[in-house]
Amino acid sequence: MKKNKYDISAPTDEFCADVLQKLTESSIPFIVGGAHALRQYSEIYRDTKDLDIFCKASDALKFLQIFENHGFLPESRDARWIVKVFKDDYVVDFIFNSMNGLSPITDDWFGRSKKFNLFGVKVPCLAAEDILLQKGFIMDKHRFDGADIYHLILKQGKQMDWEYILRAFDQHWELLLSHLMLFHYIYPSERDCVPSGIMDELLERLSAQRKLPTPIEPVCRGPLISQGQYDKDIKEWKYKTITYENL
Hints:
Beta Polymerase, domain 2; disordered N terminus
């Protein structure tokens, strides 16, 4: 008999099941993200010893205390968006904002989440739209989540709330357009996964923008998608930007 892909058999599975059970018993709102949420929508399995948990900033330290009481080692590496707990070779990330500070976890994220059975525990997972939003800004030298985004669109694009996605990217619509153009390039036979109205809207914005004068102030938005790769632009070439450091 073929085993279900969520059967608890490996140490990693046992660890995840234990963490998810503790989270559920805490009665504090949380959402599972990362590889475990992505595979619910894209059918892609990625073996990982990390468990990404999304929560509100006001609850992150509560989770830290709960897991410290259960023998986990807490760590507040970057208090602006993430805290962690460790046990043996495993880590649980409690994420309450995006790395660039643009997407704090709010009650709306919980309302959009969907429940799945993970490792024998029924838990809420990030909505496909919020996975796209969260991964859309990750374009660093050592990590680019583009493939995750394009697989997500391939499998879920026809069911996704694209009007919400458009609103969520807001002034960063050019970044969304760049991802959709790459999706068109990678899957030319699947372009109907993205509503034509969304592409028309974004291309019309681009056309209108090109008719406007370029900004007077030198601007570089690179730090919103990559930590460190645009330091020279900001520190030496004096480009202005918005980063998670000055939000």
